[in-house]
Amino acid sequence: MTTAVSALLVSLTACGASLGSGPQACTEIGAVAGISLTVASSFAPEVEAVELEACWEGTCRPVAVELYPGEDMVDLGCDSALPEGSCSATATPNGTLTGFTEVRGLPEADVESVATVTHPDGSETTTAPLTAAARMVYPNGEQCPGAAPQLGLLLDGTGLHPA
């Protein structure tokens, strides 16, 4: 019994080793394949909703993006330089609209996207097609699992742009 308890304590101690003493630790955080959209603050007042169409490998898919007010994080500093100290930040609206939607099967490749914008008066406009590459994102670094392809898009008064 004493040997089992000792072995368990050694195992737990090894799990808590500092990150500087060996390879980078991988967490359980993973990315989701999908498309993020930011509507520029200069164009946001003209946008009620956006529907994307994403095309790759000869097939197009409708992509609904729910938009939310965008925010910037403002660092409020730390109460101490010690590791036990606490730090804080606050979110401040920045006038943009942002959204992310999961897109199953999104490849790490070029994707053609078109946005249909619904304006506050109910009218709609459609952007010219944009081809941009979806890229792999690695939440914990390339050596860890959990990577997924994502495409970032920016919408302004002139159309879609890669973000």
UniProtKB/TrEMBL annotation:
Residues annotated as signal peptide: 1-16
Keywords assigned by UniProt, alphabetized: Signal
Domain of life: Bacteria
Protein name: Secreted protein
Source species: Arthrobacter crystallopoietes BAB-32
Taxonomic placement: Bacteria, Bacillati, Actinomycetota, Actinomycetes, Micrococcales
